[in-house]
Amino acid sequence: MHIPDGFLNAETWVTMDVVAGLGVAYAIKKTKTSLGERQIPLMGVMAAFIFAAQMLNFPVAGGTSGHFIGGVMAAVLLGPWAATLVMSTIFIVQCLLFQDGGLTALGANIFNMGIIGTVLGYYIYRGIGIFFGSKKGLFWGVGIASWLAVVLAATFCSIELAFSGTVPLRVALPAMAGVHAFIGIGEAIITVGVIRLILKARPDLLQRYA
Amino acid sequence: MEKWIIILLGVAVLAAVFLSPFASTKPDGLERVAEDKGFLERGEEPQVVNSPIPDYAVPGIKNEKLATSIAGLVGVIIVAALGFGLGAILKKKEKIQ
Lengths: 210, 97
Hints:
The complex is a heterodimer of chains A (210) and B (97).
Chain A: H1 10-32, H2 40-55, E1 58-60, E2 64-66, H3 71-78, H4 80-98, H5 106-132, H6 134-163, H7 169-201
Antiparallel strand pairs in A: 1-2
Chain B: H1 2-19, H2 29-37, H3 64-90
Helix pairs in contact in B: 1-3
């Protein structure tokens, strides 16, 4: 759900640009103190993978499609802050090169999907994992957090649209949350599937943040 | 790491090149809500940036599927390079004894 230019009013998109800017700056700071040598290739791979996956829209209920976000998947493998940077890179390239998402709306898109959908998603996943413990907790955490990441990103998007006067919250929120509740199922299935594969083949990749 | 990196990158490239032309073209969640609730036109004004490959279709290529495939390939290569580069620049610096 990449917001184009024109959906948000100036006050809103400027605010979100600032917020996202601060978030990304913080992510850079945190990444510098935690990113290991071995994770460098993983950043490139995750970027490639998530970019490709975001191109693969899948149909959901009645005449609509959804796409994968990938924030939680990236965070489970890279940690939330490096993941935010990977996601932000993708959004920037999508905006500048492919006109997917407006330049003014870049902050909002990075915030909704790269910070809420990634960092908050990650901490939800950790919380659930701690609650359940062990492998069961890992998969439940990944699944629920992925689903919530999509729904929460859509929620914040609705709030931004409402603040901009584009559409009232009581109209936008149920519509956005509703369709993204379905899209989120796709996100959860894909993310859990990928994490399962990685757990089988390269469990060491999950050690740091699982 | 090496073989795995190549496999995963390969999967990403294959998906971007061979699967993306067959992705659903239906409007995504936000677009659909915008259509239904009447604010889609706001997003159809000229965008701030004039991107070279708008909507993931390389201009000038008549075959739509091919245009999408090439867009996918270009995108995957660029973000992979940026991801690697970012990682290389930001990695934790070892203290030099």
